[in-house]
Amino acid sequence: MLFGADSVLADGSIINKVGTYLLALAARDHDVPFYTCCESFKFDFSARVENKLEEMDAGELRAPIVPGLTARNQYFDATPPKLITGWITEQGVQHEF
Question: Based on the number of CB atoms within 10 Å of its own CB, is 22 exposed (0-12), middle (13-18) or buried (19 or more)?
Fold first, then answer.
């Protein structure tokens, strides 16, 4: 599998659209390599996962009101480096972080 990344953090985690993490888990479960591909300027070694996960107004979802539940509208998730086979940039492929 080949995915883009909105950001690559210092530990090799990638921040990308919600669902990327689940697809990386599925790839690992089926022994499919999982590569991320992005420009090197997207490497952000000063950020932490908590600072990079954008959440928008839940009202955008137009979710029904259900007592005891809170709707959340997350745009991004974090995929840990243990699920990533390699990072591809204009400088080549990196297999370790």
Answer: exposed
